[in-house]
Every structure is written in C-alpha cells, then in structure tokens.
Amino acid sequence: MKSAIHAANLTKKYGKRMALAGLDVDIPEHAVTAILGPNGAGKSTFMRMLTGLVSPDQGTLSILGQYPSWQLNASISYLPDRARWFESHRVEHAVEWGASLLPGFDKDRAWELVRALGLDAEMDVRGMSKGQEARLMLAICLARDVPLLVLDEPFSGIDMISREKIVAALIDSFSERRQTVLICTHEIAETESLFDYAVFMKDGRNAMSGHVEELRASRGSVQDIYRQLYS
Ligand SMILES: Nc1ncnc2c1ncn2[C@@H]1O[C@H](COP(=O)(O)OP(=O)(O)OP(=O)(O)O)[C@@H](O)[C@H]1O
User: Fold this and answer.
1) Please, which residues have CB within 8 angstroms of residue 215's CB and are 6 or more apart in sequence?
2) Which of 37, 78, 86, 178 makes the best surface tag, with the fewest CB within 10 Å?
3) Cα 118–chain centre separation
4) Least confident window among 76-85, 95-104, 106-115, 178-187
C-alpha cells in the first residue's frame, strides 16, 4: 500500500486537553478513507493539521511526500467542520468565487454538482436551509481536481435520503478521478459503502485501521466495529 499521508507520533495539546496523543497512521493513496470516532477523539484536529491550520506539538506528518504548508494547500480541497463561506452570496457567486480563487476548480463540474445536489444559480445563501448550505459547500469542494480531498463532516445537516443519493454519486466520481479522499463522519450507516479504508480514532490515537473489506471479513461491518470499540 502506497501512503498519501504518513503520520507518526503526532501530539497536540490545548491547555491540559490532549487532542492528539501520539497518532500513528498511514492513509492509502487513491482510496476513500473514513476517519471515525466519537466526539472529541481528535478527528478534526488531525484534519486541520493536514492543511497547516494547526501545528503538531510533536511528531512527523508527511502529505503527498511533503510537510504541510500553504503551497501544499493548492493540492488539497478542504471542507472544514464548522465554516460558513458564502453568507452574502448567491449560488452563482459562490461558483464564481471558487473559479477565481481555488486551484484546480472545474466550473463545469461545479455546475453539474450544484444541479445534481438540487440547488440553482439564483438561490440566496442567506435564505438556505442548513442542509442546502452543506450541499453547496460540498459541491464547491468536489469540483476541484486536486490530488487530495479532506472533508470534515460533509453530510451533517443533510437528510438521510439525500445523503444516500449523494453517496451513490460520490462513489462514481471518486473512482473516475483517482483522488485520495479523507472523510470524517458520524453518519456511518449511509456512508459505509463509500469507504475503502477506515481509521478508528480514540482519545487522540489510532485505535484500529485497515482496508474495509478485510475488516469486514474478520470483524463485521464498520458499524459493528464502531460499536465494539466505543460502547
Ligand atoms: N481550538 C481548540 N481549543 C481548545 N480545545 C480544543 C480546540 N480544538 C479541539 N479541542 C479539544 O481537542 C479535543 C479533540 O477535538 P476535535 O475537534 O479534534 O475532536 P473530533 O473528534 O473532531 O470531535 P467531533 O466528533 O465532536 O467533531 C476535544 O477535547 C476538544 O475539546
């Protein structure tokens, strides 16, 4: 397995709180990896570290063979866990913003995604529901043809049936493009079919990781493993 991301003994403390407590993990390239775990396990901290928004206190991190940096961020499409990007925009402005600012942004693809996700150009972001806004942010991130996608809770706020539809569309899109994709989510039931690889985090560490097919063969579904590890 060739790694797109290699992390060794990563630690990060906020005051007395250990967000990462010696995280060792290898994320395979050209695969879709789930980063799973309960609230506070350190998932978002790890994802922020990939884009240089948070620096490790200790440990090493290599992404596509490089250290995290602003230059490297041109190769990463990052969906943060709690951002609102386009409050004073309409959908069409958000797409223009992406096209003018984001490296690798494919405008035709953005429009395809916007329509497929049930949005239209004239919609005002301020008036959107939480789920509609989440779809817009997801469309903007997925429209980028870059080697690495880092999506922190991309489905939160999106209803179950729509989530299932989006997941089905994503499976086709990811296999076509050979991108490395990391997704942090709590919606395991509807998203399990997306994942090639899974990392289960606990207390800032890697509690278990592996290829989903192998994990399933030895331990049951991703949901079963989740229950075994955390309940
Ligand atoms: N900026 C911050 N300041 C202080 N503490 C923080 C900060 N960011 C994270 N933490 C703490 O670090 C720990 C890990 O947080 P993190 O957001 O990485 O967890 P998570 O696994 O993404 O959780 P969730 O599933 O709730 O999003 C938590 O205890 C959190 O309170």
Assistant:
1) 198, 208, 222, 225
2) 178
3) 21
4) 76-85
Residues, the chain:
231
The model's pTM is: 0.94
- pLDDT tens digits for 30-42? 999 999 999 999 9
Map tokens 């994990």 to a residue.
215
d(CA 42, CA 205): 8
Distance in angstroms between the alpha carbons of the first and the last residue of the chain:
31
> Pocket around ligand 1: residues whose beta carbon is below 6 Å from it?
14, 17, 19, 37, 39-45, 81
Looking at the predicted complex, does its ipTM rise above 0.95?
Answer: yes
Angle between the N-to-C axes of helices 222-230 and 212-219, in degrees from 0 to 180, rounded to the nearest 10: 70
Domain 3-230: state its class. alpha beta
Q: Could you tell me which of 43, 55, 83 has the C-alpha nearest to residue 198?
A: 43
213 CB neighbour count, 10 Å cutoff: 11
Atom of ligand 1 nearest to the CA of 12: 12
- Nearest residue (by CA) to ligand 1, atom 27, is 39
